Amino acid sequence: MRLGLRGRFSRRELLGAAKVALVATALIALSYAGTVALLDLAVAFHLTGQVDRQLAARLQVAEASPNKAFSSAGVQISGRYGLGIYGEPIALWAFSDGGEVTRTAPHDPVLPATLAPPADGRGEALNYGVDGSTYRLYWLKARGGWLLAGESLTELGHVEAVLVGSEAIALPFLLIAFFLVALAIGLRSARPVELARRRQLEFTADASHELRTPLSVIEAEITLARQKPRQAAEYERVLDQVANEAARLRGIVEDLLWLARVDSEPARPPLTPLELVEVVSATAHRFASLAAARRQRIEVAAAERGLLVAAPAGWLDKLAGALVDNACRHGSEGGLIRLSALSLGAPRRACLRVEDDGPGIAEPDWQAMLGRFRRAGGGPDGHGLGLAIADSVARETGGQLRIGRSHLGGALVEVTWPSGRPSPPGGVP
Fold first, then answer.
1. What's the pTM value of the predicted model, to 2 decimals?
2. What whole-number distance in Å separates Cα of residue 261 and Cα of residue 391?
3. CA-CA distance, 33 to 133, in Å (whole number)?
4. What is the pLDDT of residues 53-63, one digit of tens each?
5. All domains in the chain, ordered by first residue
6. Are the CB atoms for 320 and 414 separated by under 8 Å?
C-alpha cells in the first residue's frame, strides 16, 4: 500500500494529508474520551439509582412488616424484591437509637464497629466497606431506632469494568479506522490543491519566460541602435522590430488578463442564445485578410442553422478567433482552413469545428496542448494561449473541447455544446 501511495501521490501530499489525519484523529480521541467518560458516569448514576430504589423498597417492607422482612434474605415480600438487580441479596439490619445492632436478617454480613446511624437524624445513602466488599447502604429512621439496608456493589463494579474495558478495546480500532478514512479524504482533497499549486508554479515560470523574451529583444535592439550613428533605414528596421515585439508583448498581456478575469470572476456576464453559424461566418470574414497574407483560403464547409449556444456576448467570438488564429499560424502556406457549424449525436449537440492542413498535433500532446504557453511541436509562432483560452470558454459555457486529426492532414479542434438549451435563471452558467 505504501508503494502504491508513493506512486500515486507526492511526498508533500502524503505528509500534508498524514498531518491533517493525525490532528483529526487526536481530536476524535479527545472527543471519544470525553463522551465515554460522560456515558460511564451516566450509566453508573443510573445503576446506583436503581440500587437505591430497591434498598428504599426493602426498607419500606421492613418498616411495614418487620417480622417477615427479617425472616430471610433474598425472597419476595409483599410484592417487593428482597434481591438486588444483579441477584445480590439485600441485607437488612435494625439499630437502636444508641447505634447498636438489634436485629439482622439471616446470613447478613457483620457490620464494621465504626458504622453508626446518621448524626443529623436524616436517612441517607452511602458506599461503605463491609466484609471485604463495597456495599451500598441506605439508612431509614424507623420507630424506636433505625433500619439499614445494604447491597454489595461487586456485580455493579463488574458491569462498569466490562463497559470501560469494551470502550478501551474499541478505541484503537476506531482511531485506526478514522485515521485511514481521514487520510483518504485528505489525499483526495490535497490532490487538486497540489495540482493547482504545480500549475501555478509552471504558469509563473512560463509566463515570466514569455514576457521576458520580447522585453529582452526590445532592450537588445535599442542598445545596439544607440551604440553608433546609423542610417535612417537601419533605425526604421529597429523600430519595426521593437513594434513587433511590443505587439507580441501586448497580446500576451491581454490574453493573460482575459484568462485571469475568467478564473477569478465570481459571477459570469449575462448569457445570450447565440446562433453558432453566425459566429462561424463572422470569424471567417474577420480572418480572411490574415489568411490571404499567407495565401491561405478559409472555407465554411458546413453551416447548419438553428444551433443555439448560451454564452456571454463576445465569448464565442473569442473562442472561434483563437482557434482560427491557431489554424492560420500552423496551417501550411497556401493551404486550406476549414470551419464548420454542425450538429452531432443524439441528443443533438452543437459543434464548432476548425481544421487545417498543417503538420497537426501529435496524439500524445492533445491533452497537454490545452495548458497555457503550450505550442505544437515547440514552434516559435504565437505565445501558446489560444487553445487555453478556447478551452476556458468551452468549459465556462458548458461545452467540451476536443483535439484530433483532420482529414486535411493537420489538426482538428472541435467544441461541442448541448444545443438549444435556454438561458439559466439569473444568467449564470
1. 0.46
2. 15
3. 29
4. 888 888 888 88
5. 12-159 (3.30.450), 271-427 (3.30.565.10)
6. no
